Amino acid sequence: MTRSNPSPHAKAVTNVCWKYVPKPAISPPIQQKHLYTPIWTSAHDQCFIDALWDKAMAGCSDVDSFNNIEAIKYATTVVNLVMKEAFTVDANCDRYNKLRERYKTFSYLISQPEIHWDRWGNTMHAPTEFWQLMFERFPLVKAYEHFGELNYTALRAIFEGCVPHGARPSRRGCNNEVIDVDAIVELSSGSDDN
């Protein structure tokens, strides 16, 4: 991608592979069925969560400074640019609330003594009777009957401000180059001097 009149920010954009698609861990079909739609896929979800995590990390010194609406606006811009979509902030406010529900549901599940979550294998183990009871109380639990929440660490950072040492969102392009999302967002917002 070249420009005839490059701006001071052009270098950040010329190094970006615009065919980038987030590479989330493949979620099992049962989670695809309960957590995603044809319009909002696991790739959209991963990009949105990574962008929210970026904002949560930026405000991590003061948990109260994390501004949800600003983070959602930022994440919406990132998803729209990276995934070439046109989602609205309102739609992504709903998505944010669904992420919070996912986080609360999964956190509740793993706090139960009947549940064993194998973090490394990302598998869930519990008696059948326990699952039946949970399905009646929380329909979203069906997504976690066999597999855990792939983005639990990121969701915990977003909703609790709890970030494990060294944990960072990872966003890489199709040639494994690091994408400077802030530079892309800055360029898209019209801060170009030309």
UniProtKB/TrEMBL annotation:
<dbReference type="InterPro" id="IPR045026">
    <property type="entry name" value="LIMYB"/>
</dbReference>
<dbReference type="Pfam" id="PF12776">
    <property type="entry name" value="Myb_DNA-bind_3"/>
</dbReference>
<dbReference type="InterPro" id="IPR024752">
    <property type="entry name" value="Myb/SANT-like_dom"/>
</dbReference>
<protein>
    <recommendedName>
        <fullName>Myb/SANT-like domain-containing protein</fullName>
    </recommendedName>
</protein>
<feature type="domain" description="Myb/SANT-like">
    <location>
        <begin position="40"/>
        <end position="132"/>
    </location>
</feature>
